[in-house]
Design goal:
The complex is a heterodimer of chains A (about 70) and B (about 600).
Chain A: E1 11-17, E2 22-26, E3 35-43, H1 44-54, H2 61-70
Antiparallel strand pairs in A: 1-2, 1-3
Chain B: E1 2-4, H1 9-12, H2 19-29, E2 34-38, E3 41-44, H3 45-61, E4 69-73, H4 78-89, E5 93-97, H5 103-113, E6 117-120, E7 133-134, E8 159-165, E9 173-178, H6 179-186, E10 199-202, H7 210-219, E11 224-227, H8 235-245, E12 249-253, H9 254-262, E13 273-277, H10 283-292, E14 297-302, E15 312-316, E16 329-330, E17 334-339, E18 352-358, E19 364-365, H11 369-375, E20 376-378, E21 386-396, E22 402-407, E23 412-414, E24 417-419, H12 421-429, E25 434-444, E26 448-457, H13 463-471, E27 482-486, H14 499-504, H15 522-536, H16 554-568, H17 576-579, H18 583-594
Helix pairs in contact in B: 3-4, 9-10, 15-16, 15-18
Classes of the chains: A alpha+beta (about 70), B alpha/beta (about 600).
Chain lengths: ~70, ~600
Amino acid sequence: MTTAEEADSTVCSVVVNDEEQYSIWPAGNPVPAGWRPTGFQGGKAECLAHVAGIWLDMRPLSLRRTSADAA
Amino acid sequence: MTTTADAGAPARSGNAQSVHELFERRVALTPDATALSRGAERVGYAELNARANRLAHLLRERGVAPGSNVAVCAERSPEVIVALLAVLKAGGAYVALDPKQPYERHRTILTDAGATVLLTQERLLAGLAENPVLLDRPDATLAERPATDLGLPGDPERPAYIAYTSGSTGTPKGVVVPHRAVLRLVTEPNFLTVGPEDAVLQFAPVAFDASTLEIWAPLLNGARLAVFPAHDPGLDQLAETVENEGVTVMWLTAGLFHQMVDGPLHRLSGVRQLLAGGDVLSVAHVNKALAMLPGIRVINGYGPTENTTFTCCHVMTEPLDTDTVPIGVPVTGTRIHILDEQGRPVTGEEPGELHAGGDGVALGYLGRPEQTAERFRPDPDAPGRLLYRTGDLVRRRADGVVEFLGRADNQVKIRGFRIEPGEIEAALLARPEITDAAVVAQEHERMGRRLVAFYVADHGLSVPELRRGLAGTLPPYMVPAAFVRLMALPLTLNGKVDRAELRKDVNRDRPDLGSDYRAPEGEVERALALMWGDLMEIDGIGADDDFFELGGHSLMATQITADIATLWDAEVPPRAFYENPTVAELAQVVEELKR
């Protein structure tokens, strides 16, 4: 059984939530509440590489804001 | 199908937003109660808070602020607890380094975490960073620092600690655990009761996340934390401390739990709740513990670091009549989903991959967006929240209790430690002589699982040299027990390394050691060589062969010590294996004790 080994051929979407955390989701499936597609689609590896290029500050947005207030 | 335990840790923690805030409330409630004990040493809640505050003020002056990662490399001690609290109070997240791990690995982690401040003990790794804070030789000005709470606003999403775990790509990765995840583990948990009358043992290395439960469950619930001394104990010393400290709650990794049940179990009669896990527990041992310790609750604790220590727990008060020990039901503040390969919920008792959601889910892997997005997915049941893919295959029984079936990938557990074989393979491939490598875990009847490295090279390599090389960069539990040279790695039909084949390829040949073979002589030498060979799965161990070069480790030493005691009524001290590492030398120790 290879549940963890998703087929690399699956087309995925890059999705993001209100905390600006990124993840991937099978393209074509309805995106869960609280998440929205960024518009980028591709194979799993392509999507993950795209995430690596855009998710530069990994702190949740709310934490970035409170940290900015505290500074 | 989804199982939900009630979520919302901040509500259960009386709206405390952070670990240290909840601790400070405990201090206000019971300032004189004992927070820490070690032998005759006692530290009250108010005193612990004052010591942590002084250190936290010092850390602020050193530049620690919300968002800082602060390294702590120290042996188990009350100072370490002061240090962890101080880091949190100063707004930082602690990065615990295990003093037993190699210097090179510490350097890798310090750089990865961007930790600029190091708290350590003088005898350890003071040279690892410039100007470290020495916990055992406090700064003379520390006493002048204010003992008052810092009062920085807490944030439930702020990281509390970063726990490094083995990474399949060759470097360890840091799991970023926020305050709310720790609060979710220890406030009104459904698997444990901890109150002012309890004493919880601090035994796990702080670098491993069992310590999250051990440390914060007592300190955030008004109980006492009984700190075990720094050294590695034998079973009897461990049991003696449990008795002397009046420990009522303790955690043991699966291997140690099994040994304790086979050893001085009766001495744990004061323990009310015995948690065990980190690997598969045996039904026979659980049942024996329940039978021998009336009134005890044995709790199988299951969960990856990414969902903060525990995801599911099975609480047992009656003997089991099943073949396996279940992992139970989700802990408070956790939802689990069992999904098939397409990410759809399985039906009925079908097996699937366990996904964990709720307040225990970590923020991801520090500085690794790609790996984070790969493992942390949108939670379909909680808007905007993350769901962690554990890689563990499970099945939910008709009565709702979950059973662990195995891994969906190559990750293995050795003596409770989680290991990605890919990390060891990368370390082997870093050597120019090695052109291909695969590491698998092989099952062993008596000692459980052990790592075996298969490598391809033009000529055989010296095993002690290979082992020394790996021990320079990897933690001790990641150094394989055996090394086997192959002409080529076996491949499956689709061209991947055939790990199933390698798992079956048990090689019992004596490895190429630094010493020539000399036959054991006399009753004790011969018996010891056989005893070692049984545990290590090696035929023909010689009299001058070295315990550690053969792949021996502390759990094996404990087993051999017990066997020696049974055979010759001789109590060999744990250090004997370090001071007298060969068969002949250890036999000499036994001969002297027999007299």
